[in-house]
Amino acid sequence: MGTIPHWLRGNFLRNGPGVLSVGQDEFNHLFDSSAVIHRFSIEKGKVTYQCKFLKSETYRKNVEAQRIVVDEFGTKATPDPCKTIFQKFSAIFSDEMSDNCMISLYPFRDQIFAMGETPVMYEVDPNNIDTVGRVNMREYVNIIHNSSHPHVEEDGTVYLLGLSVDVTGPKYSIVKFPNTRQGTTKPDVFSEAQIVAKVRTRWPLHPGYMHSFGLTPNYYILIEQPLSVSVPAKLASKINNKPMSSMLKWYPDHPTIIYVISRRNDKIVLKYEAEPFFYLHVINQYEEEGHIIIDVCAYKDPKMIHCMLIESLKGAHENPKYANLFRSRPARFVLPLRSEKTTCDLVTLGGTEAKAFFTTRGLIRVLPEILCEMGCETPRINYPRFLGKKYRYFYSISADVDLENPGTLIKVDTYTKTYKTWSEPNTFPCEPIFVPSPGGKAEDDGVILTSVLWGSDERKVALVIIDAKSFTEIARTEFRAPTPVPKCLHGCFISA
């Protein structure tokens, strides 16, 4: 229905959780399910759809054993009945991690990789979504954990936030993967990977959980929320047979710390503190008139993680407590780069209600501005042109599950603090991906791609194309799959 723009050609790829069980075993959390890659191929005004399981080692082991054999975030593996008591005891000390990369998809050079939060990635062929190969980043750099949202600059250079450990303790580490498209004999982009900046964690045994970070032309921005991955809890979980989710510890009496690191000398320029908040996704960040502006989808606390337990998801729309736990708001923090002691507001930038003050302890306390009174998640921008630059618009799905149409897409105008929405009764769109139109001059010259599911028909799926400027639908193609289609998390568009 409608007309697909003639210039729109390529593969719209999605990644996310698949089946909720293996054999007789059931997963407990949405983040545990085996990764499924989706592909909408757009060519000459026509669209085709396919999806396949990511053939990770974890997936292969589960299928072969017909049970869950590797621990996931919220699900413990089923013990092997064939193991002796001594083998079961030794398994407590195993370092085996799931390589179920079911969160995102990103380009590294001319390859596409499915990512999770362990240092393992899987290459996916964008033309048929076959699983091509496995890369363990620990073979190239010393990291034990990584965010699933790297940044890709215009020249193809990739920056990734990881956690490394050395004799002095754990550190947040920025890993650089140089663009190797030209002038190199290196076999792949990973061969030249290097850690370019490190920040010591606030608590050595409780490093903060980080899902994304900020990048501008001159700075890295790390947000250390008081949600930690507890090392003692990790050891206890092995002995007490608890899932990895038990390692996450929330410290509501401690502030969120924001670090600004220079890309020129890799040193901390300033650090700021804010009221404790939980976040997964940074929207965008930029520099303006001696300030850094960073926008995030912020929650009061991390209880929304537990909202994604399979049991909690059932009947979530009718549960008012669930809605309150899942409620986020897009928050803007303005970080003044000058540090002269004063009792006045340090933010001198116009057009914002965000504030910053020195505390009696000599630290800079930042107070955010809420960009709109709508819950926003999985935010996207005109990334090719506006990563790390002053921008006006972002696009997201609604995080307000108690709306009349909880499956709502949102376009937020950060200048006017207004928004537009797209929705259809009983439908659930995924993360909106902005694709710029050729020769477009305005920031919102382009289209939004989203895949849509139906609450009344679990086998129905559609690609919906929305004009980014007016935020109205211009085309869609609907499909009926032979099996239920799962909801996806993140993805990308690869132009043909």
UniProtKB/TrEMBL annotation:
Residues annotated to bind Fe cation: 149, 211, 281, 490
User: InterPro entries recorded for this chain?
Assistant: Carotenoid_Oase (IPR004294)
Q: Which UniProt keywords apply?
A: Iron, Metal-binding, Monooxygenase, Oxidoreductase
A GO biological process of this protein is: carotene catabolic process
A GO term, aspect molecular function = beta-carotene 15,15'-dioxygenase activity
Is Iron-sulfur tagged as a keyword?
A: no
Co-factor binding details? Binds 1 Fe(2+) ion per subunit.
Q: Is Iron among this UniProt entry's keywords?
A: yes
Which cofactor(s) does the record list? Answer: Fe(2+)
- Protein family per UniProt: Belongs to the carotenoid oxygenase family.
Descriptive protein name? Beta,beta-carotene 15,15'-monooxygenase
